[in-house]
Amino acid sequence: MAKEELLTLEGVIDEILPDGRFGVVLENEHRIIAYTAGKMRKFRIRSVVGDRVHVEMTPYDLSKGRIIFRERTPGVGPGPRNMRR
Asked: Can you list the alpha helix ranges (DSSP code H) found in 1-85?
Protein backbone atom coordinates (compact mmCIF):
# COMPACT_ATOMS: atom_id res chain seq x y z
CA MET A 1 0.00 0.00 0.00
CA ALA A 2 1.42 3.40 -1.00
CA LYS A 3 1.93 6.23 1.44
CA GLU A 4 -0.74 8.94 1.22
CA GLU A 5 0.21 12.26 -0.33
CA LEU A 6 0.33 15.25 2.00
CA LEU A 7 -1.59 18.42 1.23
CA THR A 8 0.44 21.65 1.17
CA LEU A 9 -1.51 24.87 1.72
CA GLU A 10 -0.66 28.48 2.49
CA GLY A 11 -1.99 30.48 5.40
CA VAL A 12 -1.40 33.25 7.92
CA ILE A 13 -0.61 32.80 11.61
CA ASP A 14 -3.34 34.46 13.67
CA GLU A 15 -2.64 33.15 17.19
CA ILE A 16 0.28 31.77 19.19
CA LEU A 17 -0.69 28.88 21.47
CA PRO A 18 1.26 27.08 24.22
CA ASP A 19 3.68 24.21 23.50
CA GLY A 20 4.94 25.55 20.17
CA ARG A 21 1.59 25.47 18.42
CA PHE A 22 -0.01 28.14 16.27
CA GLY A 23 -3.49 29.00 15.06
CA VAL A 24 -3.33 29.33 11.25
CA VAL A 25 -6.03 30.67 8.93
CA LEU A 26 -5.64 29.01 5.54
CA GLU A 27 -6.25 30.81 2.26
CA ASN A 28 -9.56 28.95 1.96
CA GLU A 29 -10.69 30.56 5.28
CA HIS A 30 -10.42 27.36 7.38
CA ARG A 31 -8.66 27.64 10.75
CA ILE A 32 -6.33 24.87 11.89
CA ILE A 33 -3.87 24.21 14.71
CA ALA A 34 -0.30 23.75 13.44
CA TYR A 35 3.09 23.05 14.99
CA THR A 36 6.55 23.83 13.66
CA ALA A 37 8.45 21.20 11.71
CA GLY A 38 11.67 19.74 13.11
CA LYS A 39 14.01 21.68 10.81
CA MET A 40 12.36 24.96 11.76
CA ARG A 41 12.81 24.10 15.43
CA LYS A 42 16.40 22.96 14.88
CA PHE A 43 17.44 26.21 13.19
CA ARG A 44 15.32 28.34 15.60
CA ILE A 45 13.16 29.94 12.92
CA ARG A 46 10.72 32.13 14.82
CA SER A 47 7.16 32.71 13.69
CA VAL A 48 4.96 35.58 14.83
CA VAL A 49 1.36 36.64 14.28
CA GLY A 50 0.87 37.81 10.69
CA ASP A 51 3.56 35.63 9.08
CA ARG A 52 2.62 33.82 5.87
CA VAL A 53 3.43 30.11 6.18
CA HIS A 54 3.21 26.90 4.19
CA VAL A 55 1.40 24.11 6.05
CA GLU A 56 1.54 20.37 5.39
CA MET A 57 -1.58 18.36 6.24
CA THR A 58 -2.66 14.74 5.99
CA PRO A 59 -5.94 14.04 4.19
CA TYR A 60 -7.15 12.07 7.22
CA ASP A 61 -7.26 14.98 9.70
CA LEU A 62 -7.88 18.39 8.15
CA SER A 63 -7.90 20.24 11.48
CA LYS A 64 -4.18 19.83 12.24
CA GLY A 65 -1.01 20.55 10.31
CA ARG A 66 2.73 21.12 10.36
CA ILE A 67 4.36 24.44 9.44
CA ILE A 68 7.14 23.64 6.98
CA PHE A 69 8.08 27.10 5.65
CA ARG A 70 7.80 30.73 6.77
CA GLU A 71 7.89 33.30 4.00
CA ARG A 72 10.23 36.24 4.45
CA THR A 73 8.56 39.52 5.27
CA PRO A 74 9.77 42.31 2.93
CA GLY A 75 11.74 45.03 4.67
CA VAL A 76 12.45 42.97 7.78
CA GLY A 77 16.00 41.70 8.13
CA PRO A 78 17.50 39.28 10.62
CA GLY A 79 17.62 40.30 14.26
CA PRO A 80 20.68 41.81 15.92
CA ARG A 81 23.62 39.45 16.33
CA ASN A 82 25.30 39.03 19.67
CA MET A 83 28.96 39.90 19.09
CA ARG A 84 31.05 38.51 21.97
CA ARG A 85 34.78 38.98 22.17
From this structure: 38-42
Residues 66 and 78: their CA atoms lie apart, in Å, by 23
Instruction: Give the model confidence (pLDDT) of 65-74 as tens digits.
Output: 999 999 977 7
Q: Beta strand 7-17 with 64-70: parallel, antiparallel or unpaired?
A: unpaired
8 A C-beta contact, residue 70 and residue 40 = yes
Whether the predicted model's global pTM rises above the 0.70 cut: yes
Cα distances (Å, whole numbers) of residue 81 to 25, 74, 78, 84: 32, 19, 8, 9
AA identity, residue 50? G
